[in-house]
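dumping this here before i forget
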Amino acid sequence: PLTAEEIAGGIKGMTARSRPTYAGTHDIVSDSSGGIIVIWEEEGTQNAYQVYAQRVDSKGDPAWNEKVIVGSGNYQSNSISTDGFGGASLVLSNSDAGTAYRQHISQDGELLATTLYSPNTISDGLGGIIRIRIEAIPPYGDPSLKRNIIYVQRLDKEGIPIWQEKQVFSTHELYQISNLKYIADGSGGIFLFWRLQKGYVTYGATFAQRLDAEGNILLGEKGLAVFVATDKYQGNAQILNDGEGGVLVVAVVGNNAFGGNMVYAQHIDDNGRLLWKSGIRIDR
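structure:
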């Protein structure tokens, strides 16, 4: 509940859910018009889950007369992303059936296209999606002897390829890709980050790659080395859009081969330039 001071200050609260069967999972995304779209789960009979959605406008009022059921029959919400047109795309999964699908919901609360969902899929921010996958060659056997290849493809809101799947990066034998991360650049393109490590060793350098809206690879054949402050341990990178077409990257690094003892940040602009030289240490 709001405090007296919050009420006096004009802060307005609202209930997005009134039933006492909230299952504990919820998410929120911008509706691109100053409001938000909220999804949450409610537990029904016999432990079956239902996923609901509601849009709240910029004044804090529900935009849809009724909350919308976007999934039922033990489907659970995995993620939600804006479609760039006031609606959103939701990924729903059923662990019992081992299936998942992508549900598109309009800004008016209308359920639109439903498609099977493939892992490693994100919104392109313009109504379509970008798919990312890693292929191991050979598919079986010792992981340290495999080649890893990253593929990327962009599709429009109808599921029609804007550009065909293309190879972004391929390792040599004995090298592995780990901690693959990706984020849309806000203009139909994508930034990808991965750690390249040799065999079973725990350390490896963090690399970046960017594809524009037409699928052009912008940061060279091998990608861009993000942190050059150390040539040994680099932990899982965390990434965030900077709001200007670039990204901010944070990772634990260290000169020890088995672990990190420093936290570094790096800023990459929309042209793929490292703005903070070798990175900035931020843990001290």
